[in-house]
Amino acid sequence: MLFFGQEVLDNRRIDDSLSVQLISTMDPDVAIKSEQFHLDPKFEGTLQQQIQHLVSQGVLSGRFLPGERMPSSRKLAEWLGVSRITVTLAYAELVANDYLTSRGRSGYFVSESAPPPPMLNQSEGDRQDAVAWDEMVSSRYSYRSSLVRPSDWRDYPYPFIYGQPDARLFDHDNWRRCALEALGRKNFESMTADPYEQDDPKLIEYIVRNILPRRGISAQQDEILVTMGAQNALWLCAQVLLNKDRVAAIENPCYPGLRDILDQTGCQIAEVRVDDDGLPPDELPGNCQVVFTTASHQCPTNTTMPIERRRALLNRSVEEGFVIVEDDYEFEMAFQKAPTPALKSLDRAGSVIYVGSFSKSLFPGLRLGYIVAAKPLIQEARSLRALVLRHPPGHIQRTTAYFLSLGYHDAMVNRMGQAYRRRRSVMDKAIRDHGLQIASGGSHGGSSFWMRAPEGVNTSELALKLRKSGVVIDQGRAFFGREDDNHQFYRLAYSSIPSARIPEGIQRIADVIR
Predict the structure, then answer these.
(1) In a 3-state reduction of DSSP, which class is residue 219?
(2) In a 10 Å sphere around its CB, with 0-12 CB exposed, 13-18 middle and 19+ buried, how is residue 166 labelled?
């Protein structure tokens, strides 16, 4: 359970280097001893939340039995080295949730009606599966051309990892206020009711009136569908538009997740090599039905498709009758100069499907995006979404709607743009000072550089070697087709690394390459 806005909470975090020494006790009046409490330095929450977690998990695991007496708030505070008010507040919440009960001056006890531990009929070692799961499971979805990065990349001092948020730039206080507002009584219906296939009207209204006009797009509310991020939006488009008899054209290199999505449809995939101006319309095959593009900020090269090429792509779409799916990610990060209008804004024939996301401007864990398209496609995608997940959570939609409409989002994007501009400048200088090669230009901003390694350097091997120096990069192989064994490129992002660490990190990359 999360607690917002409680100023009395002891919000201190335990420093990783601090070892908490617990004082053993032999108090005969306390059945639960100090050895059963241990604070985790990496616990993601306040001390109060961690104490609640320790007690509730002790009850649910069967280590703390109904009727057993808990240590007093004063004694537990001494054991753990925290303030007594922190323990008192944790105990109060545990009483409210029926994990503990208070018996006046006698103290706190494990509640007789606390949630029982799960019943285990047999141990893991005794179980023998009667199903041949290796044969039963189709394994159609296990293979993914995902980026190879360590799960503990945050522990590395020089993480040049793309698409990850920097907690120092996020507006925690105002997001918390919006979350509280969305939990209020006046929003109870929107948060708790099941709207079936519909989306939060406040969020849709803001997208229509504020976000889309900035990209030059005009749309009606029934031409918009909220999705669980851009990945889900691309999946919905692919499922609705493609089958084994149709051809989809994609950029090469491109977002790895898109290639995996298209594989599941069984469609024929035509890969078109991008140049310094993005996707060349003249290179598209004559038999494609759907074209996927990142025109404004090509993934991963960062190139921007010029207006003339955009018009040529749209004209060919009209002439040949294919649909264009435009993934307009990172458009808010065009901090170097004014962003180019979206491809959708130039569309007069209704052939462009626009995919947007809040992952880069808010945070990727939000999992919130949207599709803007003709009503027939939105209707079909809405029905498909309903079969899979019904709709994105109401509380998330309403919280985001408040954060957007109250101006917090725009202010945060402005701060992020300033920080990214500084980091980009520092990284650009460090790259040039150490003789590294930027592979593409023409970017209006964004949060990364697309790099080319010297001849003979395998960037997949380079990425592994760099980890020994505390550096994490995105190797470029995953962005290319499976038949294109390209290990020459890599990506350096600056969204999750402070400016002060960039020069040293770039120097380490240069040293390992040399």
Answers:
(1) coil
(2) middle
To which residue do tokens 């380079």 refer? 462
Residue 4 has pLDDT above 70, yes or no: no
**Radius of gyration from C-alpha coordinates of the chain:** 27
Torsion over CA of 287, 290, 293 and 295, rounded to 10 degrees? 90
pTM of the predicted model, to two decimals? 0.77
Question: Which residues, at least 6 apart from 333, have a Cβ–Cβ distance to it below 8 Å?
Answer: 297, 360, 361, 416, 417, 420, 445, 446, 447
pLDDT band at residue 2, thresholds of 50, 70 and 90? very low
CB 235 within 8 A of CB 259: no
Give the ranges where 148-248 is alpha helix by DSSP (H): 172-182, 188-192, 201-206, 212-214, 229-241
What are φ and ψ of residue 34, in 5° steps? Answer: -65, -30
Round to whole Å and give the CA distance between 236 and 171.
31
Closest alpha carbon to 281 in 294, 291, 289, 268: 291
The phi, psi pair for 336, rounded to 5°, reads: -80, -35
- Give just the sign of the alpha carbon dihedral 260, 261, 263, 267: negative
How many residues in the chain? 514
pLDDT of residue 20: 36
What local confidence, expressed as pLDDT, does residue 51 receive? 92
Peptide bond into 253 cis (omega under 30): yes
Residue 315 has pLDDT above 50, yes or no: yes
Asked if residues 200 and 398 have their Cβ atoms less than 8 Å apart, the reply is yes
pLDDT tens digits, 190-236: 777 777 888 999 999 999 999 999 899 999 999 999 999 999 999 99
Contact 182, 191 (CB under 8 A): yes
Q: Token pair of 60, please?
A: 């649910």
CA distance 199 to 190: 10
How far apart, in Å, are the Cα atoms of 236 and each of 231, 265, 356, 362? Answer: 9, 11, 13, 22
As beta bridge partners, residue 437 has 452
Q: Are 507 and 195 in contact (CB under 8 A)?
A: no
Q: Find tokens 């920097």 and name the residue.
A: 166
**Phi, psi values for residue 510, rounded to 5°:** -60, -40
Mean pLDDT for the stretch of residues 88-110: 92
Q: Determine the pLDDT at residue 139.
A: 72
Q: pLDDT of 7-28, one tens digit each?
A: 333 444 433 333 333 333 334 4
163, amino acid identity? G
Distances 505 to 140, 152, 217, 430 between C-alpha atoms, Å: 39, 17, 40, 9
Q: Is 450 exposed, middle or buried (0-12, 13-18, 19+ CB in 10 A)?
A: buried
